[in-house]
Amino acid sequence: MRRSFSLLLQNKPGVLLRAAQVLTARGCNVEDLRVSRTEDPFVSRMTLEAETVAEQTSLLEQLRAVPGVLEARDLTSPAIGQPREAGDLVTLQDIEAAMTRIRGSIPVTPLVLSEWFSNLTGSSVYFKLENLQFTGSFKERGALNRILTMTLEERARGVITASAGNHAQAVAYHAVRQGVRCVIVMPEMAPLTKVVNTQAYGATVIQKGGSFDEAVAEARRICEAENMVFLHAFDDHEVISGQGTLGLEMLEQCPMLDAVMVPVGGGGLLGGIACAIKAIRPEVRMIGVEAARVPSMMRAREMRSPVTVSAASTIADGIAVRRAGDRTLPLVEKYVDEMVTVEEEEIAKAILLLLEREKTLAEGAGAAALAALLHHRVDLRGKKVAVLICGGNIDVMFLSRIIERGLVKDGRLLRLQVFLPDHPGSLSRLTQMIAGQRANVIEVHHERAYYGVNLGDTMIEVTVETRGTGHSDELISALVSAGFNPKRVV
Q1: Is the Cβ–Cβ distance between 247 and 368 less than 8 Å?
Q2: Which of 280, 328, 399, 474 is 20 to 30 Å apart from 194, CA to CA?
Q3: Same domain, yes or no, for 428 and 459?
């Protein structure tokens, strides 16, 4: 039976050789050997054949007795290539095994205390910055863990997946690095930056379907036609286990957390993290956050079964999943305390505040958990709260629209329509009044033919930069007092 083992070896000459000699003496055929270095020890992951479970147990004992071997673990349960039962829930042991597999390739991201957001919310707010991963999101964890558990036969067939972007980039990056052919099916409306990046990592990208579910259907069709291996974005045991490593990291970085807020799409991230954290500290409050337009996990919890919700466009495209997973829902039901939703404007505001106050770039899905905290979906005042910033892959043009819209919503950009006599000095008098209120004119547009303008008059549409809503109100009041009749454009 083919088994997968991980050895943690001291970085000293001869250690790997002595471990290999033990394997040879036991008649094991090493099919695959990879060595990845860390700062001091290095991790060697081996795929080898052992005849029985009893033999494999004694083999582990012998490997652990080799001088310089710090740890020897069986990573394969069930054996590589053996399918898992649908009801086989991810466990803490699965997540710990995933951590051992990926630790040499996936960096530990910071968990940082934000003084500004802590003061704003009344909680001690810690941001877990998964947007700093190489491909820009947490998805690398699950993708790599799944790829590393593939058999040689599966590797030869190649992998295919469907994704709105982040899973696509993670699978493309790690599959190509492992020498595995990779095909990605992305929805037609996937963000351009995610499509371009996925292609740059070396994958073949096919854009098909108006939603994630339609992209999945196309990927499965190709998978069957070309005998490839399908890597599900969230409803896969090894993917969930990989995402769960985030829970272990957060508890290592801040052991006394009171609550963790996690964005939710299909539920692989939330299910994995909640499983890890609740197994170690069951008193930690686990909160999932969905986009209000696509609340598939909330509906699944209500119905106690996955249901398909209506397709909808959302700024949080990374969690716009219409149906929760069959594997993820039981984990969410077992370990998650609350599910909440956030609106589009709330997510946009969270993106803007993260950028402005923390100098942190988050995509819509990445800012969803913070949006829920900012808008009091749950009462966490006085608590230590980890907020997951799960990704930062956002199109620059889209980001510019979010920034401009956010400035308008905060009252820092104000557009007014003012009717004036169309003769010299009228515009000058208006702009002098604006300058006198310490506001800055950004743009001016004249209109003489539309908006019901009287002959001899002109309509001036002026865009002004202000300090906020209060300053905007003061400016409008001053203009009215001076005889103007400004109309706010909304």
Answers
A1: no
A2: 328
A3: yes
